[in-house]
Design goal:
The protein is mainly alpha-helical. It has one domain (26-86). 84% of the residues lie in helices and 0% in strands. The chain has four helices and no strands. It has helices spanning 2-24, 26-52, 63-72, 74-86. It starts with a helix and ends with a helix. 5% of the residues are buried. The model has no long low-confidence stretch (mean pLDDT 87). Keywords: Membrane, Transmembrane, Transmembrane helix. The chain crosses the membrane at residues 5-22, 53-81. This is Pro-sigmaK processing inhibitor BofA. InterPro entries: BofA (IPR010001). It comes from Lachnoclostridium phytofermentans (strain ATCC 700394 / DSM 18823 / ISDg) (Clostridium phytofermentans).
């Protein structure tokens, strides 16, 4: 029962934080959403072109790569592909 209460409190805190961001930072949220969508498209295009040239250094489209690229922009994208070269 305690676990459900902690999950409920965590969900409530998340909803309150999302509401706060929506009320006070509408422009910022829109910018992050647009950058996230663009990052999905760019990662997909780079992966497609890389496969056509026989390069197997790929970055997956997942929540971490989308978040890094959405918040850091082009340097984040370069960071992801640079890290994929070494790991």
């Amino acid at each position: 029962m305690k676990q459900y209460i902690s999950y409920l409190l965590f969900a409530l805190a998340g909803m309150l934080f999302a509401w706060y961001l929506y009320v006070n930072h509408k422009k910022w949220i829109g910018t992050v959403i647009v950058r996230a969508v663009l990052s999905i498209v760019v990662i997909y295009l780079i992966n497609t072109v890389a496969l056509n040239f026989g390069i197997v250094t790929l970055v997956g489209v997942n929540i971490v790569s989308i978040g890094v690229t959405a918040f850091l922009g082009v340097p984040g994208l370069l960071l992801l592909y640079g890290a994929s070269l070494f790991f």
